[in-house]
Amino acid sequence: MTVREAQVSTSSARISGIHARHIGYRPDIDGLRAVAVLSVLFFHAFPTMLRGGFVGVDVFFVISGYLISKVILTTLERETFSLADFYSRRIRRIFPALVLVLGFSLAFGWNTMLADDLAQLGKHVLGGATFVSNFVLWNEAGYFDKASELKPLLHLWSLGIEEQFYVVWPLLLWAAWRLRIPLLPLVVAVGVASFALNVAGVREHATATFYSPLSRGWELVVGALLACFASGARFRLPGALGGGHGASIGRTILSVVGLLLIVYAVFRIRDTLPFPGKWALIPVLGAALIIAAGPGAWVNRVLLGNRLMVSIGLISFPLYLWHWPLLTFARSAFPEGLAWPARLAVLAVSAVLATLTYLYIERPFRSGSGSGARVKVIGLCASMCVAGVLAGVMFKSGGFPSRYPEIIQRATEYDLDGYRASLRNRVCFMDLGQDASQFAPECVDGGDKPLWMLWGDSGAAAVYWGFRELSNRSSAFRLAQFTTSSCPPIVDFEGKNPDCKGNNRRAFEKVRELVPDTVILAGIWESYDKALLPATIRQIKDAGVRRVILLGPAPAWKDTPSRIAFNLWSNDPLHRVPSERLDYAKYGLSEGGQDNQTDAAEQYLRDVAQQTGAVYISVIQKMCNDEGCLMRESASSGDAFYLDIVHLTPRGSDFVVRSIARELGVEER
């Protein structure tokens, strides 16, 4: 080791005192932390550039499993292990930066967020403070769940898994040690069981497998297995890894192969793959090989152990905590999109805040022992409790909508449960993972009135409420609904929903069986390949259906109109209520006037209708004029027309269907 390398190692070891005291400091592991955090940061800021950067979290898991297990095993062998000391050090390591970021998020959200967004933030802060974020996000997952880039604390799911590991793992190892149960077979058995759960569930239960500590724990256990081989007299590294002739070459080969595996994972794995599953083996094995190679291996010594990488690794935890809330808040402030220089600026600000957090928050709390350490632990726990209580109050209050006027409250209301009920979610709207067998009998009205059948995707399900209200008011028809997530009403369409083809076949079988008077085909048309649509319409007509209506797409937005309205109100010095119409050239989904995809879809649907004898009805013409497109009905009305950037609320659906009633041939009472 050179003098310079020794200085870096000595300085870093002094900074990271916990490692120096318990297991001996390894600067290359901080360098590996740098690789992991930079992968995650650039994936979040530039997802199309670094598509697999999210695997940095898996690298973190291996590092955490190794370091924590090595601390536990080393202190067990020295007979100095103490659960109280272990958890005290974990609290002083994790709580300072976490409390700061949670507090910042609450304060920033109070001043900038809609009531529902603030309520959700409160729930996520509470989940972060109690280390159950992964379970909170698991419970929220669904088709109409808010976009991930709008959740400032989404990234805390991984911290939840690590903390759950930290609660269970020391107890398990300590108990096994006391009972003289062989640790290596136990660690292997736990890891194999967790990996088996991961592989078994990654396709059928993707969300659960991603967030569950039972199916992600094997990644930490791989690190723990390395710690078993690296600690004390009970374990020995075999062959070239343990020393002797050829050890240096063997370690270098391991480190190079490990680095190549991580690089491959970062650039080749996609979030469209079933992950973690078997794909997670690549970054996990890569991290394990680098750690196993030891600090003397070439990659570890030269690439990971250099001053820059070690410095980034030292601030990796606060850097991970800061970057995602800052990106999320920036995206909310600029719904038209963040240019790449702005995203780089956010990452730079994150690095500055992380450095300050590390130097002036983390390090002071991590130093010290005895009564001073106990006081710090008590203070940190009290601070975390305060953050949790404040977050709980925000959540229970619904985000304090009283912060702004009633009309803005109504214009920004977000009632997800009511919305799901209005489109008959999981009853006549099949969510992801539901097949045609789950369409309920009540999806077809009884009676002798002419039957109208609504067929399509979530956009079609969103207008169901308007047709239901029209049916109730006019008594002119009864209604059937067959709608499926991400599934346009096109026979033999194959998309990202694997149940789409079967569900559409079921819907078409119902057309043949029921022979409705009218079939309404609706959807978010601009999102799909519509090449098979003309053939579908002809098959419907051949089945004896009198009329086929193609309902055009609703205007789509860069950000939820309610959030745009809130920002307009809050940024206006006079706090004037914004117009009921938004400038579509400015806020529409694509730049340069009306959304080109929507415009192209409109023209295509008109042409198809003319070719096939269907009736085309434009929604955009009812909602838009030269002044812009409606986000609510009038200047005095506060009821929002949109749940998100494209799905109509029941109020929006009712407005649209009332507007087209005459074109539908219905005279309302």
From TrEMBL:
<protein>
    <submittedName>
        <fullName>Acyltransferase</fullName>
    </submittedName>
</protein>
<keyword id="KW-1133">Transmembrane helix</keyword>
<keyword id="KW-0808">Transferase</keyword>
<keyword id="KW-0812">Transmembrane</keyword>
<feature type="transmembrane region" description="Helical">
    <location>
        <begin position="156"/>
        <end position="177"/>
    </location>
</feature>
<feature type="transmembrane region" description="Helical">
    <location>
        <begin position="279"/>
        <end position="298"/>
    </location>
</feature>
<dbReference type="InterPro" id="IPR002656">
    <property type="entry name" value="Acyl_transf_3_dom"/>
</dbReference>
<dbReference type="GO" id="GO:0016746">
    <property type="term" value="F:acyltransferase activity"/>
</dbReference>
<feature type="transmembrane region" description="Helical">
    <location>
        <begin position="53"/>
        <end position="73"/>
    </location>
</feature>
<feature type="transmembrane region" description="Helical">
    <location>
        <begin position="373"/>
        <end position="395"/>
    </location>
</feature>
<feature type="domain" description="Acyltransferase 3">
    <location>
        <begin position="28"/>
        <end position="357"/>
    </location>
</feature>
<feature type="transmembrane region" description="Helical">
    <location>
        <begin position="31"/>
        <end position="47"/>
    </location>
</feature>
<feature type="transmembrane region" description="Helical">
    <location>
        <begin position="310"/>
        <end position="330"/>
    </location>
</feature>
<dbReference type="Pfam" id="PF19040">
    <property type="entry name" value="SGNH"/>
</dbReference>
<feature type="domain" description="SGNH">
    <location>
        <begin position="440"/>
        <end position="661"/>
    </location>
</feature>
<feature type="transmembrane region" description="Helical">
    <location>
        <begin position="249"/>
        <end position="267"/>
    </location>
</feature>
<feature type="transmembrane region" description="Helical">
    <location>
        <begin position="220"/>
        <end position="237"/>
    </location>
</feature>
<feature type="transmembrane region" description="Helical">
    <location>
        <begin position="94"/>
        <end position="113"/>
    </location>
</feature>
<feature type="transmembrane region" description="Helical">
    <location>
        <begin position="342"/>
        <end position="361"/>
    </location>
</feature>
<dbReference type="InterPro" id="IPR043968">
    <property type="entry name" value="SGNH"/>
</dbReference>
<dbReference type="Pfam" id="PF01757">
    <property type="entry name" value="Acyl_transf_3"/>
</dbReference>
<feature type="transmembrane region" description="Helical">
    <location>
        <begin position="183"/>
        <end position="200"/>
    </location>
</feature>
<keyword id="KW-0472">Membrane</keyword>
<dbReference type="InterPro" id="IPR050879">
    <property type="entry name" value="Acyltransferase_3"/>
</dbReference>
<keyword id="KW-0012">Acyltransferase</keyword>
